[in-house]
Design goal:
Layout lengths: L2 H22 L9 E3 L10 E4 L6 E5 L2 E5 L4 E6 L2 E13 L3 E5 L2 E5 L2 E7 L3 E6 L4 E5 L6 E3 L3 E8 L5 E3 L3 E2 L2 H11 L4 H68 L1
Parallel strand pairs: 6-7
Antiparallel strand pairs: 1-2, 2-5, 3-4, 4-6, 5-6, 6-9, 7-8, 8-11, 9-10, 10-13, 11-12, 13-14, 13-15
Helix pairs in contact: 1-2, 1-3
């Protein structure tokens, strides 16, 4: 990338950060959340929690801090696992942590990451360390590198959940949700996002390399298929020539 373009890109990113911070940083902390059983968030037990609209909530899960976006529902399973029923969570953990759903699980070895879901899929975004996505019913896990995101979805008729391919984290939606849940000042938010930008840029480059590799494999597959079809056509034409020659010989011999 040329220096002028690089400077313009950085300035655009900085402006985008400030716009999203100004627009969305005012989401208030929830003073009360729906809990089942009652007051379970204060105890080390299985606990279902749901936030109201336009409010966020910080849930302690063992040593981890889990920030719940508005209209988000989770079940705290243990000190290292929760189930995401709806909405978006931002997990900050110094140790391994798992977020699950009916689509499969997201596994982290520690650090910060994001998981969001709707009725058809669950998307994981790696912002500090790589994640592993394990689609339900699948034998292999999907790696999500820092700066990337990927999704797992509904279980198909073969018993395996559907899944996507790695993409660079969608920057504008990520900045909006991060600004909503960020616990510090706007200045601190801008500082953190500038630091994240380097990781995001690496993820963008990694995804570009991944898709280029897919394109190369696709071109190779198309070339192999074209060569196979060409061989088949040549074989068919050769057999047709042989049949015509046999027919002419038979006619001439009679």
């Amino acid at each position: 990338m040329r220096p002028v373009r690089l400077i313009a890109f950085f300035l655009a990113f900085t402006l985008d950060v400030r716009v999203h911070a100004a627009e969305t940083a005012a989401l208030p902390n929830s003073q009360e959340v729906l809990q089942d059983p009652a007051d379970c968030v204060l105890r080390a037990s299985v606990c279902a929690v749901k936030t109201a609209s336009f409010e966020k909530y910080k849930l302690a899960v063992g040593e981890a801090s889990v920030y719940l976006d508005s209209s988000t529902a989770v079940i705290r399973r243990s000190e290292v696992e929760l189930t995401l029923l709806s909405g978006t969570v931002w997990v900050r953990s110094s140790a391994g942590f798992t977020v699950s759903s009916e689509f499969g699980v997201v596994q982290s070895e520690g650090g910060e990451f994001w998981v969001s879901r709707d009725a058809s899929r669950m998307t994981a975004s790696a912002t500090e360390k790589a994640l592993m996505l394990r689609p339900r019913g699948a034998t292999d896990a999907l790696r999500v590198d820092v700066g990337e995101e990927n999704w797992i979805g509904r279980v198909a008729s073969n018993g395996i959940a559907s899944s996507g391919v790695p993409q660079a984290i969608a920057l504008a939606p990520h900045l909006r949700r991060w600004a909503r849940l960020f616990p510090g000042t706007r200045q601190a938010f801008e500082k953190e996002t500038r630091r994240f930008h380097a990781s995001w840029s690496r993820g963008l480059a990694s995804v570009a390399d991944y898709h280029e590799e897919l394109a190369v494999q696709r071109r190779q597959a198309l070339r192999i298929e074209a060569e196979r079809r060409a061989r088949l056509r040549e074989q068919e034409e050769s057999r047709s020539r042989e049949l015509r020659a046999m027919f002419r010989r038979k006619v001439l011999s009679e």
